[in-house]
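Fold it.
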Amino acid sequence: MAVVNRCAVAIAPAEPLLAWARGLGLSTEGPGGAEACLYLLREVDSDADAEEALQEIHADIFDAELDAWCRDEGQWPEPRDYALFRRWFAVQLHPLIHDLVEEPPLLATPVDEELVEALRQALVEGDGGP
């Protein structure tokens, strides 16, 4: 067994986010409505350090979560500061991660951000994609 040099944070939509989604006519019932998504943050030594790490990256998580609900950024709340983030999401920090899988080794695959943005834009424009 190995320990991964990351901190995990589980992010689940809280009632204010679900109310916002319902206000847009989106369904909050069924699969995905209240499921948590897991993100890996830098390695931390304490709860305070984990909170600091989350504050550093919360904007990226906020955007990813909102994008999963609604691709129209004009519908997203403003400002999306850390206080709103903490109200809109249930957050559970996990500072110690054990990797119980020996083979294959844990790998990280970089995301091609330009491709993701091109796909996102194609969906917004409604042309069905590249």
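The beta strands are 2-4, 6-13, 37-42, 89-94, 97-99.
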